[in-house]
Amino acid sequence: MKNAVTRLGNITIVGLKAIFRNKLRSFLTMLGIVIGVGCVIVVVAIGNGATQSIQETINSLGSNFIMIFPGAATQSGARIFTGQSTMTVEDADAIKAECPSVAYVSVIMRTAGQAVAGELNWGTSVMGVGVDWPFIRAWNLSDGQFFTDADVRSAAKVCVIGQTVADNLFPQGAAVGQIVRIKNVPFKVVGVLEKKGGNTMGQDQDDQIVAPYTTVMKRLMGQTKVNMIQAAARNATGVQQAMTEIEGLLRQRHRIPPGGDSDFMMRSQEEIAQANEQQMKILRTLLLSIAAISLVIGGIGIMNIMLVSVTERTREIGIRMAIGAKGRHVLLQFLFEAITLSIVGGLIGVLAGIGVSALAAKLSGWPIVVSPMSIAISFGVAGAVGIAFGFFPALKASHLDPIDALRYE
Q1: How many Cβ atoms are within 10 Å of 362's Cβ, its own excluded?
Q2: Quick check: 79 and 408 in contact, CB under 8 A?
Q3: Per-residue pLDDT tens for 172-198?
Q4: Residues 385 and 298: beta-carbon distance below 8 Å
Q5: Where are the domains of the chain?
Q6: What are φ and ψ of residue 179, in 5° steps?
């Protein structure tokens, strides 16, 4: 046992001396492993962060969130949005009254404009909604109150502003009760929405002004057709049933025959999240493939350098065998060198990957989640690469004939 430990210690010392004897060559050999492992860490971190962001968006919107887009048509076998709306306020009222699986419904009217308050102004989006909208979006107010159903019926000039708009138009605070002019129409601020942050597309959800849809339609847009309808099912498990009821009702109201193409589209928040997640999976697979190729190239580099090392040290191997070293001892020595290069390269790659992930999070503002599992897997893969690509050169060294090795010049 003591001899085995001593022998292993000698193998380790000889192997480390061989690695440090050619520092630059050893580092260049490890570079492929460093890049591959670093890529794995960064890709997994970004993927985990994106998944977390999508899940937070679902939670903020509610998993029972449904959007109904008007103006759909089939072109070349694909359903697309044409921009020609055929939906009305009466359609939204009918959904609320006749679809038992639907809890809340709101008309959505979108426009944009320059909001002016005193000497300050801010370009933002303006959205006309109904009183159910904050329940659909699960969006509370940080100050004031939401406008009422009476405000919607009378097309009152009142509004609720997002936190970004409040910060830019009323930097001193106390936005509630102030007047904001949009396209020369004065609106009284009755509330400020809680801060939500960006959505899955990176858009600032707090950069908007919300007003009664009747006011936006009559005073800002001058149109009677609806841009969109948002709805919420009574619970997350009833989303598909709610969508089925809405589709049947709108087909009936729009006189669309069975089997005919509808003039609207529906999407649930879960479907949108799944589409985003699918895109992230494709991107993640692509980047992981690149990382795998880098690891293979790094492994080939290790094999190449180890073969060169065996050739350079042929006489040394012959001397060791002549004084009693066995073939397995030589094999272990060279295998140890290959594994050491891989593990050290993996360690540098992990540190580089964590550093790049942190830098990306700081510069881009993306959520980045470094997974301990990805670090462990990276180490394991690095070690496996060292064993797989270092075994052949080590085996070749162990099979050298001592006499031929001693004659080698």
Answers
A1: 10
A2: no
A3: 888 899 999 998 899 999 999 998 876
A4: yes
A5: 2-57+275-407, 87-262
A6: -110, 135
